[in-house]
Design a protein that fits this description.
Blueprint: E1 7-15, E2 29-36, E3 42-45, H1 52-60, E4 68-69, E5 75-76, H2 78-82, H3 91-129
Antiparallel strand pairs: 1-2, 1-3, 4-5
Length: about 130
């Protein structure tokens, strides 16, 4: 089966509008990898000078209420996202951190792939059964 995609790699998706944060002000995030085509209601982020995993963990712990606008429908604009300021650890600290977290995220990715393949197998077997 042929699937269209415009991204291939490891990325972080952050909602642009709608449900952009949880009840405590933390962003709704999706750590994704492989080939995909996100809709236009998501910010597609990838680390620059930091790993995407570091970026994911950073945003997971960052209250974003200050950059969310909209009374009826919540929105996070690119301009507001770019206004976020943070201090990066030095490159040696980032390397140490990545040495710890990369095996964990590698396991997350392999487990998600395994779950996907098991779901496909289940679907095929159930269609043959009925």
């Amino acid at each position: 089966m042929y699937h269209k995609y415009n991204f291939d790699g490891i990325y972080l998706l952050l909602g642009e509008d709608g449900t952009v944060q949880d009840e405590y002000g933390f962003p709704i995030l999706q750590y994704t990898f492989g080939k995909f085509w996100p809709n236009n209601h998501a910010h597609v982020l990838q680390g620059k000078n930091v790993s995407t995993e570091w970026l994911y963990l950073y945003f997971s712990q960052r209250n974003i209420s200050g950059i969310v606008t909209g009374a009826v429908q919540k929105k996070v604009s690119q301009k507001n996202m770019n206004s976020l300021k943070f201090k990066l650890p030095d490159s040696q600290e980032l390397k140490k951190f990545d040495k710890i977290i990369q095996p964990l995220f590698s396991k997350i990715r392999s487990t998600k792939l395994e779950n996907y393949h098991l779901e496909e197998l289940k679907r095929v077997l159930l269609t043959k059964l009925f």
